[in-house]
Amino acid sequence: MDAINGNLDLWAEGITYTLLVFFGGGIIALVLGTIVGAMRVSPVPVARAVGTLYVTLVRNTPLTLVFFFFVFGYSALALPTLSNTVLGILAIGVYTATYVAETLRAGINTVPVGQAEAARAIGLPFGQVMTLVVLPQAFRSVVPPMMSVFIALLKNTTVAAGFSIAVLPQLQSTISNSHTRTGSPMEVLLWVALIFIALVMLLTWLQRSLEKRWRIAR
Questions:
Q1: Which terminus of the chain has a lower count of CB atoms within 10 Å, N or C?
Q2: Ranges for the ABC transmembrane type-1 domain (predicted)?
């Protein structure tokens, strides 16, 4: 327990930053992914092309390179200065949005075409057809795969440790390089793994709760 008791401040910081990157990136991914997913099924050819290009380029780029672009490339563009944490949140959010978009597109395709046609027949524009008719049903049908995307997002927060963002895996390096900290690197890594397992189990419980609630709502 030396790795815990002697470094409570670092553990608190690591958990806080891990959750910050997770929730911040998750919000960006959900909002941007929903927009891109709608573009992918849009009747407007330009919108479909832009959505397809975005998904193809970003999803096939390794996450580490996306982080490199945001953390190091951003500063070379003479734009307003942002912290590495904010840039890391943007990087993981933009990357994960592609998986959200594809998962949601699959859900959209499960909604009967007749419902969208009926909505258009009463005069609803494409935006309202999506937000009022299609997307609510699509989200219900993709709860398990969508939660898998967010579990992957949680695990991908570990990449941020390589870019000076104080997420949990960064603790191992901080403690190892300090002469005043206690705990072996292996013990630290084991505790980090246990925390991630607990967080994944929490997300799994949330998935089951949402499935149960929305199944009853149907």
A1: C
A2: 15-207
Structure tokens at 69: 């672009």
Distance CA 58, CA 83 (A): 22
Q: Residue 166's closest CA among 4, 9, 13?
A: 13
Radius of gyration of the chain (CA): 20
Q: Three-state SS string across 96-133, please? A: HHHHHHHHHHHHHCCCCHHHHHHHHHCCCCHHHHHHHH
pLDDT digits (tens, 9 = 90+) for 63-92: 999 999 998 888 778 778 888 899 999 999
